[in-house]
Amino acid sequence: MATSFDMVLFGGTGDLALRKLIPALYRAFKDGDLAEDSRILPVCRQQADADSYVENAREALKIHLKADEYCDTLWGRFSQLLWVVCLDITAPDEHWDLLVDVFSSVTERVRIFYLAVPPAIFSRCCETLSEKGLIHAHSRVVVEKPLGYNAETANEINTKLALYFPEESIFRIDHYLGKETVQNLLALRFSNVLFECLWDAKSIDHIQISISETVGLENRAGFYDETGAMRDMVQNHLLQLLCLIAMESPNSMSARNIRLEKIKVLESLRPMVGTAVDKHIVRGQYVAGNLNQVLVPGYLEELKAANSGTETFVAIKAHIDNWRWAGMPFYLRTGKRMEKRCAEIVIQYKKVSHQVYGQQVGEVLPNRLVIRLQPEESIKLVLMAKKMDSLAIKLQAAELNLTLSDTYDSFKSDAYKRLLLDVVENNSALFIHREEVNAAWAWVDPIIDYWRQAKDQPQLYRAGTWGPTAADELLARDNRHWFNAQ
Asked: Which of 237, 319, 354, 481 is catalytic?
């Protein structure tokens, strides 16, 4: 039976709430995963927004759901869960008392506070929640990345959150960890002897993790120029995926055991200091270019600035110094205005140790496991096989392809839906612990500090390409190349 809950969405009129959170909750309701006496309380700052919220939420669902998901009858039932609240987070006035009144009749069930607001007001919001007596033993708080600007500011935010919520009640969300293919990655690794025995530097040549975006700044110009790709994507998404790829098998799939193994990976990352940053990292910034047959502006044009040293692209050659991965490189890459939107993990295996066929059979390629996280979710294994349309012995690469949406008719991946339901059930396995945040910043901060001190500018790349040529050269020096999404 689904657990009843109350969920307050601070920042209820924002893009995240209307584009991701409300659709995710609707899907959960549609699938029977929400108790019908639960309440969703979007917080609006202006009364006009509160008055029109239900209709705006309905329009958002029509836009962001798939064509077969929206239903007027179902919406009618779901809309009864929406209890719109009008208040100013930064002003603990009589409007907050209205929220207190809403909770006065239901005091014991799960209470979730989702802070879809800037980190600068996390503390003020939690302080007022505490002053109004709204935090109880079954309360949880959810916060979005990026958590802080560096290790110092992240620690300040976490320390303030800890004043009002115990660590086990703080859910730091990274939506990539909620993707079904990421969960399948763990199943592949730890439930199949085929991969379990071939998951180390002895068998694998290298691993690539790429997250490419076609969008530019959208409505985040000011935020992004202060953040950059290293803070916005590498410090959280890429390092979290790296942890899941590289970590040892936990004793069980409990949140604590998974966290301990992920922290070991972060602490084993070889530090990047001084000239090692120049040698192993490439950062870039896009200029105007042709993207999908459309001329799009460059970063500075979108920013409306004469100059900026903020990176919109990062490529990294990283090493994990432990017994499993010693000497084997991990290549991490992320960028905006890339040729194609895709998030993909590529595990490139080594060549066979002895080639029994002659050159006449064609090129024998090493095996490759490709795990795609978006836009479609799939797992592909590239093997060598004999061509079946010829009596002669000719080899070719053949693909074993598991496309989840084709294999499972009812498959509709929604990372936020999964994560929100995990918060309700108090399952923190897919969320980030404070110690992970600290370890990630400890690796990233020296890189950013070096860039700031060196005062060098990012290398330029055309929008609609795969990044600066230096990123290709980073791998070419090792006689390797990027596997760009097709």
From this structure: 237
